[in-house]
C-alpha cells in the first residue's frame, strides 16, 4: 500500500485538474457559436464524459460489484437522471453554486462508493445506506459540477436549449461507450481467480483517488476565498 499511494497521488493530481474543465479550444467554440448546433454539442458532451475522470471513477465504483445487466442499467439510469436534472437546471435555469465545493462533493462521491464497496459502512455503522438513493443524489452533484463550468462561459441564448439538450444527450452517449468498455474489462477480470482477492485493494486505491480529488477542490476553494 505504501507503494500504491504515491502512484495514486501522481495519477489523481492531473485528473483533479482536468475533471470537468472545458479546454480552451472547446470553450472558444462554445462561446463563438450562435444558433443550434446539434452534432458539435453531441460530440462535446460525449467527449466530456469519456474524459471526465471523476464521473468515470464514481461509475466504476457503482458497477464494480453489479453482475446483472438489469442492475447496471438501473443504477446508471439513476445517475443519468440526477446528472441530467442539474445540468439542464444549472445552465438553463441559472442555478448557481461554488464550483470548488460542488466538485469537492463529487470527489467525495468516489470516496463514498469505494468505502461502501469494501463494506466500510456495515463495519462502522452496522448497516448499509440506500445505494440507489446515494447514486441519484450524487448524480445531481455530478451534473451540477459540469453546469458550473458551462456557466462560466458566455453562451449565446440563440439555440441554447437545443444545444444544452444535445450536449446532455452526448454526455449520456459517452457514458454508455465508457461504461461498455469498463464492463467488458470487469467481466473478464471477474473470471480470473484473483478478482475478489484484489477487489479490496482496488477500491482502496479508488477511495484514495476520491480523497485527492476532494482535497484538491477544497484547497482551491480556500485559496480562492
Bulk shape: globular
The secondary-structure class comes to mainly alpha
If helices are DSSP runs of H or I spanning 4 or more residues, what is the number of helices? 10
Tally of separate domains: 1
Q: Bin the helical content.
A: over 70%
The overall pLDDT, averaged over residues, is: 87
Q: Termini separation (Å)?
A: 35 Å
Helix and strand string, N-terminal first? HHHHHHHHHH
Give the strand content. Answer: under 5%
Q: Main sheet? A: none
- Taking all Cα atoms into account, the compactness measure Rg is 18 Å
Provide the low-confidence segments as ranges. Answer: 1-13
Find the count of extended strands (DSSP E, 2+ residues).
0
What does it look like?
The protein has 225 residues and is mostly helical. It is 80% helix and 0% strand. Helix 4 (53-63) packs parallel to helix 6, helix 5 runs parallel beside helix 8 (131-151) and helix 6 (99-117) runs antiparallel to helix 8. The chain has ten helices and no strands. The model is unreliable at 1-13 (pLDDT under 50). The chain has helices at 4-18, 24-32, 38-51, 53-63, 69-93, 99-117, 120-125, 131-151, 160-190, 195-224. It has one domain (4-19, 26-224). The protein is globular, with a radius of gyration of 18 Å.
